[in-house]
Amino acid sequence: MTMTKRNEIAAVIFDMDGLMFDTESIAFKGWKWAGEKSGFPLPESLIYQIAGNNLKSTRALLEKAMGSDFDFHHVRQFRLQYAAEHIEKYGVPIKTGLYDLLDTLERLAIPKAVATSTERARAEGILAKANVLDRFRSIVCGDEIQNGKPAPDIFLAAAKKMNAIPEQCVVLEDSEAGIRAASAANMHPFLVPDLRMPADDALKMVSKTFSDLGEVAKFFDTYQ
Length: 224
Fold this sequence. Notes:
The chain is an alpha/beta fold. It folds into 2 domains: about 5-20 and about 95-220, 3-Layer(aba) Sandwich (Rossmann fold), CATH 3.40.50.1000; about 25-90. It contains 10 helices and 6 strands, in the order E-H-H-H-H-H-E-H-E-H-E-H-E-H-E-H. Strands 3-2-1-4-5-6 form a 6-stranded parallel sheet, covered by helices on one side. Strand 4, helix 8 and strand 5 (about 190) form a beta-alpha-beta unit. It is globular, with a radius of gyration of 17 Å.
């Protein structure tokens, strides 16, 4: 899909984990630790597979892969404990260029939203700790939609909240599931890779690729 001119961009929709914050790496280590602690070692390939998925999809993927004895709730509680203790000790790890990008979009008067697979209570807590909660017009979370990424539901809900036409929305994503969801929503997926590059067929859906959010800020500053 061809990019629109800057003055035709209705909104920019941000993923959260792995895009704004370096929390996917924390989640990855947390799942590994939680699986080992619970007696259910999780293969790295499986942990990569659940990146970007909401709670419902994550549970379905893990239970299918690990069998009927897998105690999802128990393992997930350890994973959440790991993440909470890490953030409490070290703070929210901010991705390079986040604040510059937010400043740029605000200066250009381009509305912003968050569409994250994370449930609302945790998402708002992390956004608040990073001092960006009040910088977004709307927030849509994984526990508020029926179908998680790679379905387009969460991005369509974010666009609807901002009265934005999907075809005029840019989505900033790091995960394959998010890129597929943005493409299915007929939006413009911008990729800022994190732990793992999407598969080749998903890369073909990407409008533009950037090394960090600072590059995205420069793009919006110069794009006409």
